[in-house]
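Notebook entry, structure prediction.
Reason for the run: the old model in the group folder had no record of what sequence produced it. Starting over properly, with the input documented here first.
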Amino acid sequence: MQEQERWQVDGDASEAYQRYLVPTVTARWAAILADRVVLRPGETVLDVACGTGAVARIAAERVGTTGHVTALDINARMLAVGLSLPPVAGATIVWHEGSALALPFPVGTFEVVVCQLGLQFFPDRPTALREMRRVLSDAGRLGLSVYGRIEHNPATHALSDALDWRMHRGASLAKRTEHALSDRTELHALVAAAGFRDVSITTEQIMVTLPSPAEYVRIQLAATPLGRLLADAPAADRSRIIREITGDLEAALASYTHPDGLLFPQEAYVVLAVPQ
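New structure, fully documented this time:
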């Protein structure tokens, strides 16, 4: 498999992603994206960079048995986890392994194309967006989301700074890349240049709740590509670095920590557009 999309997890991390990140983060953003794009019964939907299918599963429920949902991701293990989950009521989800840079579907196949929190990781974003336009019907619509400014996402910001300080400069690349499309003007221009009009961008926010900063660090190292940073480290070094990073986050997120746990905001942009 070519490394065409940069945010990838290995091995058991796909299961950890579904177990920890989907309930606390991904499923909640999926519901917001589905709400904003206004999925209707009977529609044909493509979920690009679907992961384990958080958006695809909501789409299947909303388009119903007369609709059709296709879920595509380059990571076979994420697809396998998605396939292993109990089916939802509604449309049957058809799963495809493939790249957003070369969607394996004919022109105009879908009425709705969605992409949740994935575009920022594609190495060739204009090509990915042109591919989404190609497979979208002329009367269709696009809905996608990307994270907003890292300064408005305090947990990500604190973790990125801690990784760079405790490990090495650039260790936080995977986290900082989550916010690579946080310039709204740039994002608008990128979508419009791919053949879309009536581009709208709204700022959305959720509040994430976790037991503690330590749990946040544990999940990030278990369920995201950050786990690779310590994969080959001796056990003693790994434990020390995790303690140091956790201590840094406890200090940085003190104002978001309460007796019942950690509560912090996440900001993302939701982009809607239609074909030119």
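Summary: The longest helix spans residues 13-37.
The old model has been moved to the deprecated folder.
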